[in-house]
Structures are given as structure tokens and as C-alpha cells.
Design goal:
The complex is a heterodimer of chains A (312) and B (446). Chain A has 312 residues and is an alpha/beta fold. In chain A, 40% of the residues lie in helices and 14% in strands. The chains are: A alpha/beta (312), B alpha/beta (446).
Amino acid sequence: MAVTIAKERWTSKVAEMVIGPNDLKLGGESTLSFLHFEGAMPNRPVTSLEVFDMEPEDWPDMLKEAFAGVMNDPVAWAKKVVEYGADAVTLRLMSAHPDWKGASADEVAKTAKAVADAINVPLIVVGCGVEEKDGEILPVVAEALAGKKTLIGCVTANNYKSITAACNGYGHNIIASSPLDINLCKQLNILINEMGLPLDRVGFDPSVAGLGYGIEYAYSIMERARVGALTGDKTLATPVVCFVGENTWKAKESVAPDVVEWGPLHDRAILWEVTTAITFANAGGTVFIMRHPESIKRFNAFIDEAYKSNAY
Amino acid sequence: MGLTGLEIFKQLPKTNCKECGQPTCLAFAMQLAAGKAGLDACPYVSAAAREALDSASAPPVALVKIGVGEKAFELGNETVLFRHDKRFEHPTGIAIQVSDNMSADEVKAKVAKINKLVFDRVGQTHQVNLVAVVNDSGDAAKFADTAKLVQENTAYPLLLISSNAGAMEKALDVAGANKPVVYAADASNYEAMVALAKKFEAPLVVKGDNLDSLADLVAKVTALGYKNLILDSGARELAKVIADQTQIRRQALKLFRPFGYPTIAFANNADPIVESLNASTFVAKYAGIVVMTTAEPEYILPVITLRLNVYTDPQKPIAVESKIYELLNPGPDAPVLITTNFSLSYFCVAGDTEASRVPSYVVTVDTDGISVLTGWAAGKFTPEAIADTLKKLGVMEKVNHNKIIIPGGVAVLSGKTAELTGCEVIVGPRESSGIPSFFKQRWLNQ
């Protein structure tokens, strides 16, 4: 009995974004994740590892070991990230946070420039997470990185204006962040687009949670957004940026030492990060910002398999 | 399912006898279409009409029951491709396999490990569902011995894996009483396997080499009168399994009857991390049963946790128990954080509090599982509710101060809450991610 293969006739696709000195392409999918039999996923998911611009105090030992000797030097740390095979470096400007160093826009911009100049892969720059402060520092960072085609975030409904204007002027792309609500994602994309930044220069961050801590909310937002994108909603057709490591490395499953019921820590912690990442890859994630180098290796091995043909 | 009231009406006697309790046959048909009445209410429906309507009203994915007793579980009755369209109904059954090439001691040791794969998550217990016994030896007696040994050492239902009908019969004779899953009927053995499955009333896996041959074989098996089935398309590579699982679910929802059954997928891999990632993918991508080799908890916990997450009902907020959660062994000087019993609110607050490394009490107010802002808007997260909860749980008796911290989003509640509780109410951050810096600025430096 010949089964008539059920193929959806999607009418549209996800926007394709181009970032970094090597013109790395991301997005552009014209089907649901890994359904190569009915559409294309022209660009592999992008992996990145985080670099802090000051030594993080609270990182678990497994992460500190992976970056031993470079965590007080963002440039050396960024080079290590490239050496580990990440597609992009994510620089988090933690030092600007009022609770940490309260560093000025000029200080963090200098670091961002030094990091960007030291690498030949795309740079993703993330602020300190305090909306007001990020609204001050990120435009200055955007100016310092003029022409580097970085991905800058995270902008929110409260600080998008100054950052969007700067990103538009200096040739960058933007990460729009909204709290777990597809309509807010859409709305922020529209607001940013109305300021003149084309939608193919916007990625959205739906505020993902890690495995076991509400992963299903972002999972369903990504599935809904992808279906929206494929059926013609341009305001949902932007690549999805997933802050995986930030969320998994605070879970107790990733840091509690060897316990009988949960097994040894090492593989459990790696799996917590990679399972979160592949779950979002299965739902429509595009950029995966992680923290452990082994996680991106495991993730890439999974993507290799998922990218094999499944044509009928 | 899928039939309109008018299509059903055509099959009814159209006598308007009213014995079904409805004024007309058309009204009854409408009730049937809406799922509000059963065909049994009509005493005059013809046998032919009954069969037509029964098969048309069967769910897109048949319900299959596995095992008996406390560890029995169900698969099927799925109605959607995306959980956000409604929900996924029956969580994927996780099977861990043992081989009949293992010694009796090895089998016992592994089964003991499988029995211990029980995880507690905010008061709920989650576990694996099946022990698979694989006839790697090719020897019927060895297979039966191993099946018997496993059966004696676990309460979980078995998944018996052999393509040899003779071996399957021997195993079922000693371990067939608890409705194990019979794996598998293929093109060469299906008649014998169907006979065995019928005899033991056991769910039978039908295994094709691809979707076409699977559809053929299902037709042959159902022609023999057996419909207690689970499907295996034969795909083993990750990308092909994703494609086939998606096809089978899509076809089932289009009411292509040969694919209207739950599925089984094999995640087995020599590298347990790869195996775990594949299993998690299959849990999200429609597998009814997923088979794994490892019994080490660090590889199973992520799969079970993802299953728990993906199979939650998106329309129903998940509540955690309203109680005092003690994080990092708090002492009497530890801060008291108030939030709602929406699971995500609690998880965010608990996760960020633990990340701050400040031992704390987190108190969850019962808002029927809705979030802080929704709870406030709905009048469920109120000063009165906070005061009642503090009193009922005896929260302030645990500490040597009288300060409580409420979420920044409901700062407006602080005055009334202070009045009702007699506590000093500190307004915390709007987002839980602000908790570590909040503690740094406002708690540790006071």
C-alpha cells in the first residue's frame, strides 16, 4: 500500500539574517524543524558560548574548569571560545550592572571592541540585563563596533528605541526580548521594525527557561511562531535566540554534586544544557547560547544526525 | 470523530421516535457529533449503521492499554500535532532493555537499577514504564528464562522483543499474564504473532521496513481481527524517525486508519548521551513508547523531566503545593519570599534564589496555580490570601525577624499586607532574575 506522504504546502519562510565578519547566515527555514522532506533548513543552528567581561563569581566549578586561566581576560576567553569550535562568541557586559562594577558605556564598549577585533567569528553582545543601563551602554557599544555586523541585545519594550536606532545606524542586528508571550514577541518585533530596522535584522528571545523549569512555555511559543512564520506572518518570522546556558546552569540538576538518585554530576549537567538546546532546536530555535564547550560538541553531533536526509 | 451531525443523521432510522431522549433523530445526530450522546441510546440503529458510525467515530489514535495493576498505563487518544493546539494526552512510555545474553545476576542487577529509576519532582513521582527483554541470543529457552526472571523482579510491564514466534510463545507462556507488549509482527511472522497476541490479550507491535510496508502489514493484521496495535516504521536514524513519527501522527489525524495507533521508537545508542538526546526528541515528537539501553539515572532524568514538561496541559496552569519551601537549609535569620503556587512562578523564584546562594524560605500562596500578576488581577493573590497563608503555615514562627518580601509586580499590595500581617513588607524585584542582586543590595547589607 503506497502511503501518500502528508506534506504541508507552506507559503512563507523564516527571515535569513547575516552576521559577523564571515557573513554567517542563520534562519531561512521553509519547514518545521528537521522535516527536510517538505522544505529546507538552509542554515544550521548557530552555537555560541558566553564570555563575561568580568570574572563571574557564581559559576559552577565545571564551567570554571573549562575556562581556567582566561576568565579574567575577555579577549583570551573569547579566543578560547573560538578554539572550542563555537560559531559565535557571546560577550555579556556584566560589569555594567549597578550591583557589580557599574562600568560606564565607554569602558564596556572598549572591551567589546577589543573582543570583536580579536576574533574572526560573529560577536553577539548582551547587556547587563538592567533595562535602563542597557539602554545607555548598548548604543555606545554599537557605535564602537560599527560595521562588525554583530547581534546586540537584549532590547525590551522599555529600552528598544535608543538601541534600535544605534543598531540600524551602525549596521548591527538586534535581539528582542519579551516575557514568554507570543503576542508580546510580535509586538516588539513590530515596534522595532517601525523604527526602520528590517525584520531580517531582528532575532527574538522569548525568555526561555531550562529543562524542568518551564521549558514547555518557550517550546510552544517557538512552535507557534514557526507555524506563523511558515504561513505568512512576517512579524513572527524572525530567527529565535535561545539563552540556554544562562538558564540551565542555575538548575540544581546542573550543580548538585553526585547524588545516588540522579547519578554523577558531569554527564547530568551536560545533558541538562544540551537537552534544553535540542528541545528548542526541535521547536524552531536558531541561535543557541550555551556555557560549556562539551555542550556545543554534543549539540553539533545531534544536529549532524538531524540534518541527514529524510526524503521519501 | 470528524463526522458532522448531518453525516451521522443519514445513518439513523429517521423515525423521530424520541426514545433516545432527543426530540428528533437530527437533534440526536447533533448530540452524537458533539460527543454529548452515545449511539447506544438509539434502540433502532441498524447493525450496518452501527459499524459505519463506530469506525468513523473511533479516535484518530487508538487507545492501547499496557500491563496490569498499579504500573499499567495507556497510550493513544492523541488528537493534535502541536501541544499548543490542545494537549498531548498520554505521556510516552519509557522502556529500558535487558538482553537475554546477560547472566541471571546481570539481569537481576540491571532490573534492580531500573526499579530505582523513580524521581520526585515537587511532590510528584515520575518513573520509567517498561522493562524490555531482547532475544539477542536467538535462543527460545534463554529468552523465556530471562523474561521470567525479569517478570519476577519487577512490577513494570514487559516489552518482549523477538522476531521468532516460537521464542515469543515460550516467553509468553512464562511471562504473559500481565499483558506485556509483544514485539513484533513482521511480514514473515505476523500470523503466528497475531495468534499469540490474541491468546494473551497483549498489545502487538507491527513492524514495517518503511511507511508503505507498515501500512500493508497493519491492513493484514487488522484483517485477522486484531486491533490492539502499536506501530514501528522500522526507522532507526534520528532524522528518519522524526520524519516517520511526524508522518504517522499527521496521517492518523487525517483518519488514515492503518496509522491510527500509538508508535514505538528506538533511541538505543552505545553512547548514553546520544541515546538520551534521541529519546528526548522522540518524547517530544509523538513516540508512544521509547526504548533505551542505559539504566543510569543521569541519562534517564532529563528524558523523564522533558516528558513531564511537554505532556503538561497548556490550558491548565500547573500548581505546586501551597507550603513553605526551605531552600539551602535556611536558619531563623533567613529571608521569607512570597510568591504564588503557579509552578513556573515557584520554579523561577526557587531557581534564582538558589542561584543567589542565600538560604531562604519561599512561601507559595494558593492562587489555584495562576501567576503573580494574573493572580493579583483575578483577586486570588491578595493581602488577605498572603496573611492567611502566613498564619496557616506558621511561617513567621520559623524566623527571628518580621520581614516578608513580596514580588515587585504587586508592590501595590504592600500597605494592606503590612496592616493585615503586622510584618514589615519589603518590595522585591519584578522579575525573579533580580533576586540575587536584590539580596545583595537589600538583604545582606541591611
